[in-house]
Each structure stands twice: as structure tokens, then as C-alpha cells.
Design a protein that fits this description.
Elements: E1 2-5, E2 12-15, E3 29-36, E4 45-51, E5 55-60, E6 67-73
Antiparallel strand pairs: 1-6, 2-5, 3-6, 4-5
Length: about 80
């Protein structure tokens, strides 16, 4: 779990190697929710890619600089 700040349409990379509990896998469910709107908020933040055991990337709409919370859950 953590937060990130969108920077327009450029992908933001979140490193997930800090602890085993937050390491993303290819099967991980990554949930995103806007915590504080910023810039030209669109309400759209999405997982744009992932590298298992290392990181994932998040994108938003152009001009969106919102703070977004993320949570990784492993499916049963």
C-alpha cells in the first residue's frame, strides 16, 4: 500500500521491492483510488504495466497531477 502522484500522461513507476508484502506479481490485483485531486483531475488512473517482483506503472489523463493511493492484493 502506498501513494503516488500522477504527472499528466507520463507513466509513474512504483517500485515494489521494498518488502515482500508489497511485491507485485503478474497475478496481483492493484487497486487505485484518487486521494487528492490535482491539476486537471480526470478521475482516471490505471495500471499501465508491471514487472513482476520489481515495479508497476500507473498513468492518468493529460494534466492530471492527482495523488493516488494504491493497494496490492494477491488473488486466492
Amino acid at each position: 500500500m502506498g501513494t503516488l502522484t500522477l504527472n499528466g500522461a507520463t507513466a509513474v513507476t512504483v517500485t515494489t521491492t521494498t518488502t515482500a508484502a508489497t511485491t507485485a506479481t503478474t497475478a496481483s490485483r492493484i487497486f487505485l483510488t484518487v486521494q487528492a485531486p490535482g491539476g486537471t483531475p480526470s478521475g482516471v488512473a490505471y495500471v499501465a504495466g508491471r514487472t513482476a517482483g520489481t515495479s508497476f506503472t500507473v498513468k492518468g489523463a493529460a494534466g492530471d497531477t492527482s495523488t493516488v493511493a494504491w493497494l496490492i492484493v494477491e488473488p486466492a
